[in-house]
TrEMBL record:
Keywords on record: Endoplasmic reticulum, Heme, Iron, Membrane, Metal-binding, Microsome, Monooxygenase, Oxidoreductase, Signal
GO molecular function terms listed in the Swiss-Prot or TrEMBL record: heme binding; iron ion binding; oxidoreductase activity, acting on paired donors, with incorporation or reduction of molecular oxygen, reduced flavin or flavoprotein as one donor, and incorporation of one atom of oxygen; steroid hydroxylase activity
Obligatory cofactor(s): heme
Record's GO cellular component terms: endoplasmic reticulum membrane
Membrane association type: Peripheral membrane protein
Main location: endoplasmic reticulum
Family recorded in the similarity comment: Belongs to the cytochrome P450 family.
Binding residues annotated for heme, in chain numbering: 436
Function: May be involved in the metabolism of insect hormones and in the breakdown of synthetic insecticides.
Single GO biological process annotation from the record: organic acid metabolic process
Pfam families: p450
Name assigned to this protein: Cytochrome P450
InterPro entries referenced in this protein's UniProt entry, alphabetically: Cyt_P450, Cyt_P450_E_grp-I, Cyt_P450_sf, Cytochrome_P450_fam2
């Protein structure tokens, strides 16, 4: 134990490791003072010499290293020895006390599942018509609902409480891919699903995760450590998705074309892979439930949050909104809705999407990785089983890369001719083996909501309300503050 507590030789610089608790007290203090974990870590780094690229902590039982530079970020994601995912009750409690799913698995198990899901995303999707149509339809449903809402407010405009007004539609696109279902916004099941996901995200913040770093807390303080609610929220969600799997099984025919991810997965379970070969041992019904949980966790909160930063900045910047509107009217006109195929001709709107991704990732962190072997990173020794967490901030604020790194400005992603230009060191979806599998879906949704809404509505703050701040607050991921916005129908 003593050996475990000692700082390993040539470990990334960081504060002194205290016995048992490690650095949890100083990290927690810095987080409170800065208002956000990422900022807190960056503040601590400023006080410790030699932390240009990396900073190393001990949090409870875990050694945790954060990346602090673009170089460290890129080296971390491209070093295969760092492609593991952490062990621990925080990760396994979610999935039946087993190592299941796709977010927190690694090695051969992860590889087989990852390959399968990627193929499904391609097959349903963006290579065929299916997924594009789903996203375009959902943007239209959103438009119709907003029009109805304005109608019921007298026909000109409506005031809404932000953020999260697009969450149901974003969830619908993912749920259609997974289970072939879309819900109307006032549907009970949708509300239930959304409440479960909200609970889940609340339980994943640092406090809820306390039992992960101090596993004994789940036994001696199951309520206070967040363990009990964490288990409860996950069980609720699994019960919901299991019901859907059972429903699929009832009218499942292995010789039919799969309608969605559940069908495709059941097909493999019933009849092996497409050439009839025995399937990889990682496939199971429990694994299907774990995959669905992971798709919800990775796919909803992220896209919602980016859309919140997008709408906030549209409200805050009338001139950006106007320029996007002019572009849409010139290219698409008013007689039809924007399509995904309009994207190459709407560079300013696409730049708004990229700038929103930058705004979201300004204080975001990646998902924890684990060293699967002793290795080196930026000249430091990283012993096996160390956790690594990327910080996106250095990639997003570099003045040599962005014209205007400190403010929301779509020009950051346009060249001198107004063409889309994405810096080669901008990685909002990370890179390497664990890079996001939902990038195409996420970006398509964001583009369609952005263009469809701006074509039809004008967004601002209601008279008498203050302009909302764009300083994010802490959530499971960086969060936009609550504010009031007015949505006005364009003529
Ligand atoms: C615009 C919104 C999104 C952003 C900014 C985003 C960002 C990311 C990032 C940075 C990672 C890498 C994590 C790491 O290892 O550090 C990741 C992984 C992942 N994302 Fe996304 N994502 C988004 C949307 C989605 C969607 C819509 C889905 C589902 C279809 C999804 C599914 C996943 C999964 C399953 C992983 C884990 C991949 C693995 O470990 O192999 N994401 N995402």
């Amino acid at each position: 134990l003593y050996h475990e507590m000692k700082k390993p030789k040539n470990f990334p610089h960081g504060p002194f490791f205290y016995p048992i608790i490690g650095n949890i007290v100083s990290v927690e203090k810095a987080r409170r003072k800065a208002g956000m974990l990422t900022k807190g870590i960056m503040e601590i780094a400023k006080t410790i010499p030699g932390t240009t690229d990396l900073i190393g902590f001990k949090i409870g039982k875990d050694r945790v290293v954060f990346t602090l530079s673009t170089k460290a970020f890129m080296d971390m994601y491209t070093n295969q020895d760092l492609d593991g995912r952490p062990f621990g009750p925080f990760y396994e409690t979610r999935t039946f006390n087993l190592r299941r799913g796709i977010l927190f698995t690694d090695s051969e198990f992860w590889h087989a599942q990852h390959r399968f899901i990627l193929r499904q995303l391609k097959d349903f999707g963006f290579t065929r018509k299916g997924m594009i149509e789903i996203c375009e339809n959902e943007a239209e449903f959103c438009l119709t609902d907003f029009r109805k809402m304005i109608e019921s407010h007298g026909g000109k405009s409506a005031t809404v409480t932000m953020p999260n007004i697009l969450a149901s539609y974003i969830l619908n696109t993912l749920w259609q891919f997974m289970a072939g279902i879309r819900y109307d916004v006032d549907n009970e099941e949708l509300r239930h699903l959304q409440n479960m996901l909200n609970d889940l995200f609340k339980s994943i913040d640092m406090k809820g995760a306390l039992f992960s770093h101090f596993p004994f807390l789940q036994y001696i303080a199951p309520e206070a450590s967040g363990y009990n609610s964490y288990v409860r929220f996950h069980n609720n969600l699994h019960a919901f998705t299991k019901k859907e799997v059972e429903r699929h099984k009832k009218n499942f025919n292995p010789s039919d074309e799969p309608r969605d991810l559940i069908d495709a997965y059941l097909k493999v379970l019933y009849s092996g892979d497409e050439s009839g070969n025995k399937i990889h041992e990682s496939f199971s019904e429990l694994q299907l439930l774990a995959v669905m949980l992971d798709m919800f966790v990775a796919g909803t909160e992220t896209t919602d949050k980016v859309s919140n930063f997008m709408l906030l900045n549209i409200v805050r910047n009338p001139q950006i909104q106007q320029r996007a509107y002019d572009e849409i009217i010139k290219v698409v006109g008013k007689d039809r809705l924007p399509k995904l195929s309009d994207r190459p001709n709407l560079p300013y709107c696409e730049a708004i999407v990229f700038e929103s991704l930058r705004a979201f990732t300004f204080y975001a962190m990646g998902i924890a990785h684990r060293a699967i072997a002793d290795t080196k990173l930026c000249g430091f020794d990283i012993p096996k089983n160390t956790m690594l967490i990327s910080i996106f901030n250095p990639l997003n604020r570099d003045p040599t890369v962005f014209k205007n790194p400190q403010t929301f400005d779509p020009e950051n992603f346009l060249d001198a001719n107004g063409k889309l230009s994405i810096p080669d060191k901008f990685f909002p979806f990370a890179l390497g083996k664990h890079r996001c599998i939902g990038e195409v879906l996420g970006k398509s949704n964001l583009f369609l909501f952005c263009t469809t809404l701006i074509q039809n509505f004008y967004f601002d703050v209601p008279s008498g309300c203050e302009m909302p701040s764009d300083e994010p607050i802490e959530g499971c991921t960086p969060t936009v503050i609550d504010y009031q916005a007015r949505i006005t129908l364009r003529n």
